[in-house]
Every structure is written in structure tokens, then in C-alpha cells.
Amino acid sequence: MIASAPAVRFPTGVVMFRGFAVPAAALAATALAAATSFLGASPATAAGAPLAGDVCFWTGAGQHGTSWCYTPPGYTDVPEFLHDKAASFRSNADTAVYVIDWGRGTCYYRLIRAHDLADNWPWGARLDGVADTTMGCEIG
Fold first, then answer.
1. What is each CA distance from 126 to 26, 43, 84, 99, 140, in whole angstroms?
2. Which DSSP letter does residue 72 get?
3. pLDDT tens figures, 36-89
4. What angle do CA 95, 100, 105 make, to 5 degrees?
5. In what order do the strands lie in the sheet with 138-139?
6. Strands 97-102 and 129-131
7. pTM of the model as a whole
């Protein structure tokens, strides 16, 4: 004969067996961990908060407005809302990255040094993509 844990009946009529009770916080943490590993994503941070290794760009001066972050390596086009509209950036990357402007028949790059930032960045009006190399472009 199998012994069972005593049941607890709540005023709402729900029955919970004491042996199977799981604190809500533990259940929520387990669900979040499972969802995160299933999606292959890292835990969310505050909007616009750069992670180690990221270079983030904002639509507003002073690192305000809508943001998007690039993590090296490789090349990535910036999202449309930021295309030619970046007003500030901050680098938490340990390496230099290059912002790319695709011009007519050629391209130009601008160096962003490791751990650099600009709160009022005029070159952001030319931002089309970000890379970890100059992509063979001319200095701009």
C-alpha cells in the first residue's frame, strides 16, 4: 500500500496535497528558467541597458529614447527605427567596432573604441550597420 500525503482543502474548494506544495516563487523561477533556455535567450535587462560586450545606440541624445545593441563579432544592419537616426551610443565591448555607412557606390566607416561613449553623436545620422571590421570601407 502506498502512503499519501495529507490533503488540505482551501475555502475555494481547491485541494492541494501537502507533499506536492511548491512555493509560488520557486515555481515562477523554474518556469522562467525553462522558458529562457527553451528560447535560447539570456535573461532580460532593463530597456537600453547594455550588457558586457555590447555596443548600444539610442535615438535620443544622452542615451535616451529607443535603443538597440550590437554584440560582436560579424556585421549587422541596424533596425529601421535607428537607421540614420542614432543620437548617442555607449560601448561596453572590450574591442573596437566600426559603424558602417553605405554610400553611393562605396561605404564609409567610423571607429568606436572599446568602452567609448557619445551623448550627442552627429555621425549617427549616417548609421546603417555595425561590424567588427572595416568591411573594406573608406574612413568617413
1. 48, 31, 5, 9, 10
2. S
3. 333 322 333 444 555 778 999 999 999 999 999 999 999 999 999 999 999 999
4. 145
5. 76-77, 129-131, 97-102, 107-112, 138-139
6. antiparallel
7. 0.65
